[in-house]
Amino acid sequence: MSNLAQFNGCAADAARDTAMGWCHCVNWAIDVASKRPFQSIQQLESYCVERWCNASVSEMEEALAAHPLIGDIELLKKKFSSNDARADKAFAEQGQVLNASDDTLEALARLNSAYKNRHGFIFIVFARDLSAEEMLLALQARICNSTKEEFAQAVAEQTKILQARIATAFESHA
After folding, report:
1. CB–CB of 120/147 below 8 Å?
2. At what angle are helices 147-169 and 12-22 packed, to 10 degrees?
3. What distance in Å separates the CA atoms of residue 126 and residue 96, rounded to the nearest whole number?
4. Does residue 37 have a cis bond before it (omega within 30 degrees)?
5. CA 63: distance to chain centroid?
6. Which of 13, 38, 157, 158 is the most buried (most CB within 10 A)?
């Protein structure tokens, strides 16, 4: 959808599917779709963030689980086939890893695995303007945090991600 009027006027299933692209949580997306019409993109974004901040733990886990591992190019290719709109989004958000050195990719893969084993979920970071090396530094800095701290950080990173995705969807800037 390229404008708010289209989002407001489309079928509920289409609105839900669009919202799922911003934050992969079924109940959240259904709630966002049910609150239409929105008077402005700012009102839409505000509701989306408010609803996300009030999501249940299971809803948050659902959304976080939908993210590809940072730097796992093969998983990105498998999870998001080239004919899947989510593939373009994933590569736009993490595409800079394609230029990373093998050493950086190996370190990302190793630390992502260790992070998931330690915390029970994958490392989430708003990666849009970060190099692979910067993502690796963030992962190194956060891996030893408590799981409670990391879950809160992952939820905060998802907030940034959904805001950026909304801005991109409506060709505006957050």
Report:
1. yes
2. 130
3. 13
4. yes
5. 8
6. 158
Element (H, E) at 7: helix 4-9
Name the E strands within 24-146. none
Residue 48 contacts residue 41 (beta carbons within 8 Å): no
User: Residue 3 half-sphere exposure, CB side, CA atoms within 13 Å?
Assistant: 3
- The string of pLDDT tens digits covering residues 29-75 is 999 999 999 999 999 999 999 999 999 999 999 999 998 877 665 65
Name the token pair of 107: 């370190």
Report yes or no: 44 and 78 within 8 Å, Cβ to Cβ. Answer: no
Say if CB 139 and CB 86 are below 8 A apart: no
Task: Identify the CA nearest to 130 among candidates 162, 92, 165.
Answer: 92
Residue 36 DSSP label: P
Query: In this predicted structure, what is the pLDDT of residue 73?
Result: 59
Token pair of 58, please? 């299971």
Chain segment 15-34, per-residue pLDDT in tens: 999 999 999 999 999 999 99
Residue 34 CB neighbours (<10 A): 10
